[in-house]
Amino acid sequence: MIPDLDIYRSANLLVKQHGQDAPIHAAMKADAALDKGDLDGYAVFKRMVKATKELLCLSLSVNHKYQLKNSSNRSRVYYNHSSNHNALGNSFGFCIATR
Fold first, then answer.
1. Using H for helix, E for strand and C for coil, what is the string for the chain?
2. Which residue in 10, 24, 39, 98 is deepest, having the highest Cβ count within 10 Å?
3. pLDDT of res. 95
4. pLDDT tens digits for 49-97?
5. How far apart are CA 52 and CA 48, in angstroms?
6. Which residues neighbour 33 within 8 Å (Cβ) at sequence distance 6 or greater?
7. Is the pLDDT higher at 61 or at 47?
Protein backbone atom coordinates (compact mmCIF):
# COMPACT_ATOMS: atom_id res chain seq x y z
CA MET A 1 0.00 0.00 0.00
CA ILE A 2 1.24 3.46 -0.87
CA PRO A 3 1.75 5.74 2.16
CA ASP A 4 -0.60 8.71 2.57
CA LEU A 5 2.35 11.09 2.34
CA ASP A 6 3.10 9.91 -1.20
CA ILE A 7 -0.57 10.19 -2.17
CA TYR A 8 -0.69 13.79 -0.93
CA ARG A 9 2.58 14.67 -2.65
CA SER A 10 1.22 13.35 -5.94
CA ALA A 11 -2.13 15.06 -5.35
CA ASN A 12 -0.30 18.32 -4.70
CA LEU A 13 1.44 17.99 -8.08
CA LEU A 14 -1.92 17.45 -9.76
CA VAL A 15 -3.30 20.56 -8.06
CA LYS A 16 -0.30 22.59 -9.21
CA GLN A 17 -0.70 21.31 -12.78
CA HIS A 18 -4.49 21.40 -13.12
CA GLY A 19 -5.78 23.69 -10.36
CA GLN A 20 -9.48 23.24 -9.60
CA ASP A 21 -9.68 20.47 -12.22
CA ALA A 22 -7.23 18.22 -10.35
CA PRO A 23 -9.92 15.94 -8.86
CA ILE A 24 -11.39 15.46 -12.35
CA HIS A 25 -8.00 14.46 -13.76
CA ALA A 26 -7.42 12.04 -10.87
CA ALA A 27 -10.89 10.54 -11.44
CA MET A 28 -10.18 10.11 -15.17
CA LYS A 29 -6.94 8.28 -14.31
CA ALA A 30 -8.87 6.09 -11.86
CA ASP A 31 -11.39 5.24 -14.59
CA ALA A 32 -8.59 4.43 -17.04
CA ALA A 33 -6.97 2.11 -14.50
CA LEU A 34 -10.30 0.38 -13.88
CA ASP A 35 -10.86 -0.04 -17.63
CA LYS A 36 -7.49 -1.82 -17.82
CA GLY A 37 -8.44 -4.04 -14.89
CA ASP A 38 -5.79 -2.45 -12.66
CA LEU A 39 -7.60 -2.48 -9.32
CA ASP A 40 -4.53 -1.35 -7.37
CA GLY A 41 -4.08 1.65 -9.67
CA TYR A 42 -7.79 2.39 -9.39
CA ALA A 43 -7.55 2.42 -5.58
CA VAL A 44 -4.53 4.74 -5.66
CA PHE A 45 -6.20 7.25 -7.96
CA LYS A 46 -9.42 7.19 -5.92
CA ARG A 47 -7.31 8.14 -2.90
CA MET A 48 -5.78 10.92 -4.99
CA VAL A 49 -9.26 12.22 -5.88
CA LYS A 50 -10.00 12.59 -2.17
CA ALA A 51 -6.58 14.12 -1.47
CA THR A 52 -6.89 16.69 -4.27
CA LYS A 53 -10.30 17.75 -2.96
CA GLU A 54 -8.90 18.15 0.54
CA LEU A 55 -5.91 20.15 -0.70
CA LEU A 56 -8.14 22.44 -2.75
CA CYS A 57 -10.45 22.96 0.20
CA LEU A 58 -7.50 23.72 2.47
CA SER A 59 -6.19 26.19 -0.11
CA LEU A 60 -9.60 27.84 -0.31
CA SER A 61 -9.75 28.07 3.46
CA VAL A 62 -6.32 29.70 3.73
CA ASN A 63 -7.09 32.18 0.93
CA HIS A 64 -10.39 33.21 2.50
CA LYS A 65 -8.86 33.61 5.95
CA TYR A 66 -6.21 35.84 4.39
CA GLN A 67 -8.87 37.89 2.63
CA LEU A 68 -10.90 38.15 5.82
CA LYS A 69 -7.87 39.43 7.72
CA ASN A 70 -7.03 42.00 5.05
CA SER A 71 -10.45 43.35 4.14
CA SER A 72 -13.81 44.22 5.59
CA ASN A 73 -15.28 41.17 3.80
CA ARG A 74 -16.61 38.74 6.40
CA SER A 75 -16.05 35.54 4.41
CA ARG A 76 -15.78 32.27 6.25
CA VAL A 77 -14.86 28.84 5.02
CA TYR A 78 -16.13 25.78 6.80
CA TYR A 79 -14.52 22.40 6.30
CA ASN A 80 -16.06 19.36 7.86
CA HIS A 81 -14.07 16.20 7.48
CA SER A 82 -16.44 14.08 9.45
CA SER A 83 -15.96 10.58 10.67
CA ASN A 84 -18.94 9.54 8.55
CA HIS A 85 -18.27 6.79 6.06
CA ASN A 86 -19.95 5.83 2.83
CA ALA A 87 -20.86 2.28 1.82
CA LEU A 88 -17.27 1.56 0.72
CA GLY A 89 -15.86 2.62 4.08
CA ASN A 90 -14.37 5.87 2.77
CA SER A 91 -14.68 8.90 4.99
CA PHE A 92 -16.12 12.02 3.44
CA GLY A 93 -16.43 15.69 4.26
CA PHE A 94 -17.33 18.96 2.65
CA CYS A 95 -16.04 22.48 2.19
CA ILE A 96 -18.33 25.50 2.03
CA ALA A 97 -17.28 29.07 1.38
CA THR A 98 -19.75 31.72 2.48
CA ARG A 99 -19.90 35.49 2.40
1. CCCHHHHHHHHHHHHHHHHHHHHHHHHHHHHHHHHCCCHHHHHHHHHHHHHHHHHHHHHHHHHHHHHHHCCCCCCEEEEEEEEEECCCCCEEEEEEEEC
2. 10
3. 58
4. 999 999 998 876 555 554 545 544 444 444 444 444 443 344 444 554 4
5. 6
6. 39, 41, 42, 44, 45
7. 47
